[in-house]
Design a protein that fits this description.
This is Formate dehydrogenase subunit gamma. Belongs to the complex I 24 kDa subunit family. It comes from Azospirillum oleiclasticum. Its cofactor is [2Fe-2S] cluster. The chain is of the alpha+beta class. The protein has two domains: about 55 residues, no CATH class; about 80 residues, Glutaredoxin (3-Layer(aba) Sandwich). Helix content is about 45%, strand content about 10%. It contains seven helices and four strands; from the N terminus they run ααααβααβββα. Strands 2-1-3-4 form a four-stranded mixed β-sheet, with helices on one face. β3 and β4 form a beta hairpin. α1 runs antiparallel to α2 and α3 packs across α4. The longest helix is centred in the last third of the chain and has 15 residues.
């Protein structure tokens, strides 16, 4: 579950300052900021540029190049669906169609209720058990539409244990 803190410039600066000494520090700092806040807030770009003696364009270029970095906060749960060749051969395109219709959201989107963010990935390392999906870091193989629906129901039920 993505229980991330709201954006806080002082906390962000502390993360930057605490990691600035690392070799190739920009990537570890971006990962730490996203872990803390759920995304890379626009306000972080000038802070990073100033602190690391980079241009804003350089920072923006790194953020936009790597697909793992988000510019908007994700849903409470993140669903990643493998789009690699082995999963394509196992029917991931059909599964993705079902997921998009079921959740009412396209890839890279977040459901209106903020419950799920749907992301494509190109290999989850579960090639023999495709199509594969990952929900909040838990890997699932041989995911059918019915199994996906059950996984989503379990995920939502875990939010409100009785």
């Amino acid at each position: 579950m993505n229980g991330r803190a709201e954006w806080n410039a002082q906390r962000a600066q502390a993360i930057i300052d605490g990691n600035r000494h690392l070799r190739g520090a920009l990537l570890p700092i971006l990962h730490a900021l996203q872990e803390e806040f759920g995304c890379i807030d626009e306000a972080a770009v000038p802070m990073l540029a100033r602190s690391m003696n980079l241009s804003r364009a350089d920072v923006h270029g790194v953020i936009s190049f790597y697909h793992d970095f988000r510019r908007e906060r994700p849903g409470r749960h993140t669903i990643k669906v493998c789009r690699a060749e082995a999963c394509q051969a196992s029917g991931c395109d059909s599964l993705i169609g079902h997921i998009e219709r079921s959740l009412g959201v396209e890839m890279h989107g977040t459901t209106d209720d903020g419950a799920f963010t749907l992301e494509p990935v190109f290999c989850l390392g579960n090639c023999a058990l495709g199509p594969a999906a990952m929900i909040d870091g838990d890997l699932h193989g041989r995911v059918t539409p019915a199994r996906f629906d059950a996984l989503v129901a379990e995920t939502l039920a875990s939010e409100n244990p009785q």
